[in-house]
């Protein structure tokens, strides 16, 4: 079923996704999820794609741009999807976004991201605080997503 006010729903999800992505980014500035020298999963992915396309390794400037583009597109896109689904499946909003944040972490950094060899599995991350910070950052993302969505709706 299509939400009764699809444009408003998508706009609320878009704004929520922007806010949640910004909140998680700020979280990671204070509670790091990796060493500064360790490449991020979006950087590794962008470099792989560039090399597989026969273009070679990306420059530092290209990596920074690709990291930002991938991180923001994924975070905001997830917010739009969350906003639309939350209208039809209100259970997604359980725990004021905490359940979604946990599921989002499990479906990314808890499984797919390490499965693609973009980073280690959480049980292999050292120091352990990096893995904890990553998980908690997803809770911040989920709560921010739900708070902004509720205000907008």
Structure description:
The chain has 153 residues and is mostly helical. It has one domain. 69% of the residues lie in helices and 0% in strands. The model has no long low-confidence stretch (mean pLDDT 94).
Number of contiguous helices: 6
Q: What's the shape?
A: globular
Task: Note the beta-strand portion.
Answer: under 5%
Order of helices and strands: HHHHHH
Give the number of DSSP strands. Answer: 0
Give the radius of gyration. Answer: 16 Å
Unreliable runs, pLDDT <50, ≥5 residues?
Answer: none
Average of the residue pLDDT scores: 94
Short description, anyone?
The protein is mainly α and 153 residues long. It has one domain. The chain contains six helices and no strands.
Key words describing this protein structure:
153 residues; mainly alpha; 6 helices; globular
Write the layout of secondary structure elements.
Blueprint: H1 6-30, H2 41-52, H3 60-88, H4 98-107, H5 112-115, H6 128-152
């Amino acid at each position: 079923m299509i939400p009764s006010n699809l444009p408003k729903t998508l706009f609320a999800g878009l704004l929520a996704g922007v806010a949640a992505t910004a909140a998680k980014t700020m979280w990671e500035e204070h509670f790091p999820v990796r060493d500064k020298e360790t490449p991020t999963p979006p950087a590794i992915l962008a470099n792989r794609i560039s090399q597989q396309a026969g273009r070679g390794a990306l420059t530092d400037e290209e990596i920074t741009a690709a990291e930002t583009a991938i991180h923001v597109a994924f975070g905001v896109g997830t917010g739009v999807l969350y906003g639309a689904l939350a209208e039809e499946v209100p259970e997604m909003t359980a725990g004021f976004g905490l359940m979604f944040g946990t599921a989002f972490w499990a479906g990314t950094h808890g499984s797919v991201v390490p499965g693609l060899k973009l980073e280690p599995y959480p049980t292999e991350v050292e120091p352990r605080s990096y893995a904890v910070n990553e998980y908690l950052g997803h809770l911040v993302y989920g709560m921010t997503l739900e708070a902004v969505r509720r205000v907008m709706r």
